[in-house]
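Fold it.
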Amino acid sequence: MRQIIGFDRRIKQHWLDALLDRVAAETEKAKLRSFVNRLLTKEHPGNEARGKTATVLMRTWVLVPPSHSHIRHHALELLPTIPSQDRLWLHWGMLLLAYPFFRDSAVAIGRLLKLQNDFTLLQLQRRLIERWGDRSTVKRASQRIIRSMVDWGVLRDASARGHFQSAAQPMAGLKAAQLWLLQAALTAETAEVLESKQLLNLPTLFPFKITVGLGDIRRAKGFTTHRQGLSMEMVQVNK
């Protein structure tokens, strides 16, 4: 059975920001769906396009499975302390959890940018096709994810047509936001336990500057750590 890609629309950050504000004040799903429809009406007057875009937004912040609800709850607790320009930390973590295709795209982009100054859509698509199959939806969705990331300011168009580069500087953030994003990212990983150095250098987090260290992770309530061998510190998320 093929995995569902889900994230196949270009998503703007001001939509995510507006929905996050509403989720912090409203819990009824029907009202939140109506809000999203109104939010998108101007840019998506057609019912089909608006409905598909609304579904991506709803799955990110509203239709969150019980296994991830505590992470969303923690994000909403952090929201009043997060500067408006840093909200992408929260959106990114929830997108990693909601959409394995988004996570795999972030992994591929992060790895490409570690190897070279820029990458092409074709290079990204080749890596995604290896995991998701050679289907038109993979190619279309990867293009829309890139355009979304450009809109969010974490990627930019390079001088060569069809090439993309990372933003000039990785995003700095509050320690609490960093630890929350690490918790979300580790939960989204296929492995439940990671070595601490791997966690602090996950390719999925390429747009962000992670400055917390192992000591911060040890003190954080969301993690459990244990020593493996003489020098490896393993980290897992508390269930």
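The first helix runs from residue 13 to 25.
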